[in-house]
Write a structure and sequence with these properties.
The structure is a single chain. With 269 residues, this protein is an alpha/beta fold. The protein has one domain: Alpha-Beta Barrel (TIM Barrel). It is 50% helix and 14% strand. It contains twelve helices and nine strands. Strand 4, helix 7 and strand 5 form a beta-alpha-beta unit. Helix 2 runs parallel beside helix 12, helix 4 runs parallel beside helix 6 and helix 6 runs parallel beside helix 7. The two termini are 28 Å apart.
Length: 269
């Protein structure tokens, strides 16, 4: 059983909802990432999404775009991100790590080389935001051979026919984008989320997680009643940017406080 599968299996047995936290590697400094990852786990994150800095993060809103920009000023790369994952694995062998990024850096490294290094670094899943299922086969072959889950986004505008094609190529969990637009944007419509999750749930038995519009414990608790997990990112990245002048430990503590509040909201939903 993979680390991702174990999280959802264990959570189902206890009624716990998965909390997935996203940060950008190297944001606001290289030194802040690793202690923040450990603090996120300490305060209740079940899965970490580690953003790979990219020059054109098209799915991201202004907050996370700035996180990518800050990381790129430190010349943080895909290889650097894989090295951070490997360092994390030296002391944490249980928390799933999912890379979230864009196709270009992976393609430039080469699918086989990437999959091999990612596997060695302890990566459990990959989200490539701009890689459609029609162009996935070569990368999926390499991921499957190393037991790395391919995780897809589904949107409010995804048709049933399109969703069928996506879920046929997905593993780990399905990531539902709760609103039209980019990360951190808009107002969360819980009723609309429920309607779409009910539809997707008829197509796949994979766990369903919701992100892109969850900014606090109240929103997380509301969505958790409908899904197997929630994803938070913008609120964490914004806090890290605000505290860029502080020490890595202080940044980690501040992020951990947000995680703890949302974890409490989920557990009491």
């Amino acid at each position: 059983m993979s680390r991702i599968q174990k999280v959802f299996t264990d959570n189902k047995a206890t009624g716990r909802k998965a909390l997935i936290g996203y940060i950008v590697n190297g944001d606001p400094t290289r030194e802040a990432t690793l202690p923040t990852m450990h603090k996120m786990v300490e305060q209740g994150v079940d899965i970490i999404e580690l953003g790979v800095p990219f020059s054109d993060p098209m799915a991201e809103g202004p907050v996370i775009q700035k996180g990518h920009e800050r990381a790129l000023t430190h010349h943080v790369s895909l290889r650097d991100t894989l090295q951070v994952a490997a360092e994390f694995r030296k002391t944490n062998t249980t928390t799933p790590l999912v890379l979230m990024g864009y196709t270009n850096p992976v393609e430039r490294m080469g699918y086989s080389a990437f999959a091999e290094v990612a596997s060695s670094a302890g990566i459990d899943g990959l989200i490539t935001v701009d890689l459609p299922p029609e162009e996935l086969s070569a990368l999926k072959l390499e991921l499957d051979s190393r037991d790395i889950d391919n995780i897809f986004l589904l949107a409010p505008t995804t048709t049933v026919e399109r969703a069928r094609r996506i879920v046929a190529n997905a593993s780990g969990f399905l990531y539902y984008v709760s609103l039209k637009g980019v990360t951190g944007a808009g107002h969360l419509d819980v009723d609309a989320v429920k309607t779409k999750l009910d539809e997707i749930g008829t197509l796949s038995e994979l766990p369903l997680c919701v992100g892109f519009g969850i900014k606090d414990a109240k929103a997380a608790a509301a969505v958790s009643k409908l899904a197997d997990g929630v994803v938070i990112g913008s609120v964490l990245v914004q806090k890290m940017g605000e505290l860029a002048s502080l020490t890595p430990e202080q940044i980690a503590e501040a992020v951990g406080k947000i995680i703890a509040e949302i974890r409490q909201g989920l557990d009491h939903a």
